[in-house]
Amino acid sequence: MSSTRCEVHALALDEAGHGTGPEAESGDGRVVHVADLLPGERAEVAIDHQSPHKAEAWGHITRRIGALSPDRVTPVCPGFGRCGGCVWQHLAYPAQLAAKHRRVADALARIPAVADGSVTIAEVRPSPSVIGYRNKGKYVVGRSGDHVVLGAYAPRSHDVIDTLGCQVVAPVIDEVATWLRGAVEGAGMLPYDERTRTGELRYVIVREAAGDVLVALVVAPRTPRAKLEQVANAISKHPALRGLVAIENDRRDGAIIPSGASAQVLSGHGFMIEELAGARLEVGAGEFLQVNRAQALEMYRRVVELAEIRDGMAAVDLFAGLGGIGLHLARAGAAVVAVEIDRDAVGALRRAARDAGLSLTAIAGDAADVRGQLTTNPDVVVVNPPRKGLSDQARALVAEWAPPTILYVSCGPESLARDLIALATRGYAPDVIEPFDLMPGTPQIETVVRLRRRGRR
Predict the structure, then answer these.
(1) What total number of domains does the chain contain?
(2) Which of 49, 218, 280, 418 is 20 to 30 A off residue 235, Cα-Cα?
(3) Are residues 254 and 233 in the same domain?
(4) Taking the CB of residue 224, how many other CB atoms lie within 10 A of it?
C-alpha cells in the first residue's frame, strides 16, 4: 500500500483512546494511532498526519478487517467519540482495568524493588460505579444555530460538542445543566466567542454533594447584571440548587477559573458542604476534589491503613488540597501538618479541622516553602502531587526529614517511576504498590505506594 494507506493491527490503547500498532508490511517500524480501533482489531487505515520527528502517524479507519474485539462494548454516552472525554468507554471495564495495570507495570518496571521481584503491583481496585460517578461537570458554552450549547471542545479543535445527556456525571448534574441551558436562552445570554472576544457566558461548572448542587457561571466582564439575575431566578426553582455564583474571566490562556477570582453570589450560598472524615468542608466552585467521591474515600482509608497511625504520631500531608488524606490521618489520631498552595483550600481546611476538633495545622505554600516550619521530624509523610510529580526541592525536603514511612499517591505512573528511582538513592524502597481506578472510561489511574526507609534515622 502507499504511505497514505496501510493496514494496522492494534496492540494497545493510547491516552486519546486510539488503538496503536505497527503498520503491516512496513520496514521502518512506523506505529500508527487509529481512532475506534481496539487491541486485537485490524483495519485498513488512511494516514491523516505523519510525525516529522519519528516513525509515528495518526489515521482513521477506511475498512475493518476481520472480527471485532470481544472486549468491545457500546458506549453509554451519546457524545462518545466527539467530545474527547471518556475515550475508553468502548472498552469493557475488565479490559480497562487490565490496560491500566499494564500502564502502571510498564512505568514502574525499572524500579529496583519491582525489577527484582521483592514487591508486586496489586490488581487495580475497581471503581464502585462506572457511570454516574462524577461529582463535578464542566461545560464549555457554545452556539448551534439559535441555540446555546453546553459541552466540550472536540479533540484538536475549538468546536463545542453538546454533552448534555452525559452518563458519567451524577444524574442531578445533567438535570441541572439542562435546566440551566433553558434559563440562559430565556435570558438572552450570549455564548462567548474566543476568536472575537465577544459574548457573555464562557463556562459553566456544576458541583454535587449529598444531592445538593452548586452552579458557577464563568462570564466575561461587563455581563449585564439583569441577565445574570434572570438566570438566577429561573434556576433557583430547581429543588437541588444550593447556590449560584458568577465569576468573571477575561483571560486568554484557557483557565476556566482564574487564580484569585472572587465569586459573586446570585442565589443561595457561594459554597456547598462536603464531609470528609467527619469534618464539614465549605467547597466553592474552584477548589479541587477527586471527582469519584466513593472511590476516593476508599483510597484515603487505605492510605491511613498503610500509614499505621498511632495516637500522637506526627504526619505531614504535602499537596493536601482540601484535606482528603490529612483529615483522615488526623481522625485516626495523628498530629497532622497539611501543606497546600491554594489559599482558599487552606482556609476551608483550617475551619473544617477546627470545627471537628481534629489535630491538623494547615499551611499555605508550596511544598518547598515549609522547610523550618516543623518542630520535629515526622513519623510519616504523605505526598499527593499533580501529574508532573515531585519537584527536585520537594524530593530533597522529604529526604531531609527522613521519615520512616512515605506514602506516595500518584496520578501519573511515569512521574511516579522517576520519583521512586530518585527516592531509592535516598534509601527508600516500596513494599506496597496498589493502583485505584478513580476515572472509569479513561486511561487515568491513581497509584498508592508505601515506601520504607532502610536503616535508622
Answers:
(1) 3
(2) 280
(3) yes
(4) 14
| DSSP H or E run through 370 | none
Cβ 34 vs Cβ 14: under 8 Å? no
Q: Distance (Å, rounded) from C-alpha 400 to C-alpha 371?
A: 9
Domain carrying residue 363:
98-129+292-453
Determine the 3-state secondary structure of 248 from DSSP: strand
Which residues have CB under 8 Å from 441's CB, separation 6+?
85, 86, 87, 88, 89, 96, 130, 168
Counts for the chain of helices (H) and strands (E), in that order? 9, 22
- List b or e across 106-127, with b for residues whose CB sees 16 or more CB atoms inside 10 angstroms: ebbeebebbeeeebebeebbbb
Q: Are residues 170 and 149 in the same domain?
A: yes
Grid cell at residue 288: 479541587
Q: Report pLDDT digits (tens) over 80-125.
A: 888 888 999 999 999 999 999 999 999 999 999 999 999 999 999 9
Asked if residues 293 and 437 have their Cβ atoms less than 8 Å apart, the reply is: no
C-alpha cell at 118: 521483592
The pLDDT tens digits of the residues spanning 231-252 come to: 999 999 999 999 999 999 998 8
What is the rounded distance in angstroms from the CA atom of residue 450 to the CA atom of residue 406? Answer: 6
Residue 285 contacts residue 242 (beta carbons within 8 Å) = no
Flag residues of the chain having pLDDT under 70: 1-3, 26-27, 375, 455-457
Yes or no: say if 325 and 315 are a contact pair by the CB < 8 Å rule. no
Instruction: Check which CATH number belongs to the domain holding 263 and give it.
Output: 2.40.50.1070
Query: DSSP letters of 385-430?
Result: --TT---HHHHHHHHHH--SEEEEEES-HHHHHHHHHHHHTTTEEE
Residue written as grid cell 521502518: 28
Q: Which CATH number characterizes residue 414's domain?
A: 3.40.50.150
Neighbouring residues of 357: CB distance < 8 A, sequence distance ≥ 6: none
φ and ψ at 46, to 5 degrees? -95, 130
| Alpha carbons 191 and 182: distance in angstroms, whole number | 13
| Residue carrying the nine cell digits 472524615 | 277
